[in-house]
Amino acid sequence: VHPNVSQGCQGGCATCSDYNGCLSCKPRLFFVLERIGMKQIGVCLSSCPSGYYGTRYPDINKCAKCKADCDTCFTRNFCTKCKSGFYLYSGKCLEKCPDGLEANNHTMECTSIVHCETSEWSPWSPCTKKGKTCGFKRGNEVRVREIVQHPSARGNPCPATSESRKCIVQRKRCQKEGKGKRNRDEKRKKSNKDESKETRQESKGRAARRQNREQRENNNKTQPKKRKAPNKEQDLAPVDTAH
């Protein structure tokens, strides 16, 4: 072993030197060179840092740099995240997205253009004018539809979600507000009044009959009993005419 090479290293190094740091790593660790000013030293890491990707070999596992426009990558030719100002598409970092795609500034990716989609029209509403359905001949009716898919930045915008058209109805007079209710209330009051009147008349009749009955009973108690008239035929004695 070279005098400058040590096997009692720290930080996951299998061999190291005072000048170059790690020269080899323990199993399953990745070897990567870090630049400090004009000097490069070797370090051993469990995973590769940003801007690098890992490769495994029988004798050593190494971290290699991604392309300059790539922030993280799976291999040198397949990027997973681009640096600022670039858009990711199929593992590549592009300054401008291909035709048929648009740049998503939130994810920094090239995505498909999404056009607006709407539901079917609803049935036409009843014919109205100023919020009423009576008292006119010509009015308007409307129909609506809902947006089921909002468009992306370059997608076709959504069309109108409501339509109106003229309509003609058979003119009819509007019932005065509250008139129907007043009529019902008046009928109810009249019915209650009639029932109350009948009830009062029945009560008066019962009271009158009870009063007459009580008066007859009182008269019977105060008047003396009449003696029974004698039978004239029985009281008269027979006259003897023999003399």
Characterize the structure shown.
The protein is of the alpha+beta class and 243 residues long. Among the domains are: 7-65, Hormone Receptor, Insulin-like Growth Factor Receptor 1, Chain A, domain 2 (Hormone Receptor, Insulin-like Growth Factor Receptor 1, Chain A domain 2); 76-112, no CATH class; 118-168, TSP-1 type 1 repeat (Single Sheet). Helices cover 20% and strands 33% of the residues. It contains two helices and 17 strands. The protein has helices at residues 179-222, 232-235, and strands at 5-6, 13-17, 21-25, 30-36, 39-45, 52-56, 61-65, 70-75, 78-82, 87-89, 92-94, 101-104, 109-112, 117-118, 138-144, 147-149, 162-168. The strands form eight sheets. It has a three-stranded antiparallel beta sheet with strand order 1-2-3, with no helix packed on it. Strands 4-5 form a two-stranded antiparallel ribbon. Strand 4 (30-36) and strand 5 form a beta hairpin. The radius of gyration is 57 Å and the shape is elongated.
How would you describe this structure in keywords?
single chain, TSP-1 type 1 repeat, TSP1_rpt_sf, sensory transduction, elongated, two-stranded antiparallel sheet, alpha+beta, Hormone Receptor, Insulin-like Growth Factor Receptor 1, Chain A domain 2, disordered C terminus, Furin_repeat, 3-stranded antiparallel beta sheet, glycoprotein, 243 residues
